[in-house]
């Protein structure tokens, strides 16, 4: 199967640059994965498609304000650092701009010296291992000095950083938001609970690899980036009970899906667990846990389009995307949503 099999034409003006004022007022395209039938709704109508006994699974990872703008010392030249992975004891794997200027031993300063750093290692990938020096708690320093690492296709500055967080975000660690969850409000979640639907949380810390294009022609040659994820004992119990009682497990976002499919046993059962996953889901994959999916519209030829196609069928998905383009849906992180059932 070729990467080009998952291409669709998207006019650039349909890429949403800013979030809507009201989170749940986005549009919702529903797709029947058996028939391919498409309907048009709004996200606040989602509870109408849920049933008592279902379980909605949300990723509660929180995006770090991981983009730091500073200068190189002593020259004062501008530098941009993007935190990727916490290595412990103040050491982070990072992307840097300009990369060639950030040699081993380079000294960096942020916030007029409130945070300083030393480039310790240049990795083969081009990433840097950078050790940060600060007083107090690093996450509090980051909250003051850092900016949201918005996807490369979003060109406008975000006025309110919380709009790139879900209302239920809790555990710091993501470099990008689990964007399917951006549509939920506390009120909508309460409506869903009042209907007898369980709401369970998993954690997957989204890496920037989610934006990397597939660079091979044959998708079997693609190697997925690894991301850390967790399922608590409480969530495992809710998921197992839902299955036993005949309810559906409805994942919100591909991150929740990848977490469940990584950790479910062959019978679709769960236990408390955590670890790294590099699961790559594409057509031909047999789903062990997920029965329905809430998701945004994804980039052409991306691993996320491949995952959705594995669940609903490539032809059904690409037809739904073509309809969404014709109907002028908003695409990607701040765009509209799909419910695949």
CATH architecture call of the largest domain: 3-Layer(aba) Sandwich
How far the N terminus sits from the C terminus, by CA atoms, comes to 25 Å
Task: Give helix and strand order, one letter per element, not per position.
Answer: EEEEEEEEEEHEHEEHEHEEHHE
The largest pleated sheet is described as: 9 strands, mixed
Give the overall silhouette: globular
Low-pLDDT runs of 5+ residues are: none
The total beta strand count reads 17
How large a portion of the residues is in β-strands, by DSSP E?
Answer: 25-35%
How many domain modules?
A: 2
Please give a quick description of this structure:
By secondary structure, this protein is an alpha/beta fold.
Q: Can you walk through the features of this model?
A:
This protein has helices at residues 138-145, 186-194, 233-244, 254-263, 303-312, 314-326, and strands at 27-31, 38-42, 55-59, 61-63, 67-73, 78-88, 91-97, 107-110, 115-122, 128-133, 171-174, 198-204, 227-231, 249-252, 273-277, 292-296, 337-340. It has 341 residues and is an alpha/beta fold. The protein has two domains: 3-63 and 160-340, QueA-like (3-Layer(aba) Sandwich), CATH 3.40.1780; 67-145, QueA-like (Thrombin, subunit H, Beta Barrel). The strands form three sheets. A nine-stranded mixed β-sheet has the order 2-1-17-16-14-3-12-13-15. A six-stranded antiparallel beta barrel has the order 5-6-7-10-9-8. A two-stranded parallel ribbon has the order 4-11. The chain is globular, with a radius of gyration of 21 Å. The two termini are 25 Å apart. The relative contact order is 0.21.
């Amino acid at each position: 199967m070729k990467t080009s099999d998952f291409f669709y034409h998207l006019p650039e003006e349909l890429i949403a640059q800013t979030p809507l004022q009201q989170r749940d007022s986005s549009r919702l395209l529903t797709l029947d994965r058996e028939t391919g039938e498409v309907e048009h709704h709004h996200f606040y109508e989602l509870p109408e498609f849920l049933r008592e006994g279902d379980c909605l699974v949300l990723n509660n990872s929180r995006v770090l304000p991981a983009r730091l703008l500073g200068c190189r010392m002593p020259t004062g030249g501008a530098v941009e650092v993007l935190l990727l992975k916490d290595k412990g004891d103040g050491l982070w794997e990072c992307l840097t701009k300009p990369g060639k200027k950030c040699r081993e031993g380079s000294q960096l300063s942020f916030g007029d010296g409130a945070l300083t750093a030393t480039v310790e290692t240049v990795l083969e990938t081009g990433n840097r291992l950078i050790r940060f020096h600060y007083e107090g708690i690093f996450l509090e320093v980051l909250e003051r000095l850092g900016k949201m690492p918005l996807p490369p296709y979003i060109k406008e500055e975000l006025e309110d950083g919380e709009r790139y967080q879900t209302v239920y975000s809790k555990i710091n660690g993501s470099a990008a938001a689990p964007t399917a969850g951006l549509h939920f409000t506390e009120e909508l979640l309460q409506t869903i609970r009042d209907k007898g639907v369980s709401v369970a949380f998993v954690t997957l810390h989204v890496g920037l690899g989610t934006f990397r294009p597939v660079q091979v022609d044959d998708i079997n040659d693609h190697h997925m980036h690894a991301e850390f994820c967790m399922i608590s004992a409480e969530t495992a119990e809710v998921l197992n009970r839902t299955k036993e009682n005949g309810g559906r497990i409805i994942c919100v976002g591909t991150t929740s899906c990848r977490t469940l499919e990584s950790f479910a046993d062959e019978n679709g059962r769960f236990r408390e667990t955590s670890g790294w996953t590099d699961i790559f889901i594409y057509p031909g994959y047999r789903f062990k846990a997920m029965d329905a999916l809430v998701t945004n519209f994804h980039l052409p030829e991306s691993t996320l389009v491949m995952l959705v196609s594995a669940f609903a069928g490539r032809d059904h998905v690409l037809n739904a995307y073509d309809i969404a383009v014709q109907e002028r849906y908003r695409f990607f992180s701040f765009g509209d949503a799909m419910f695949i059932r």
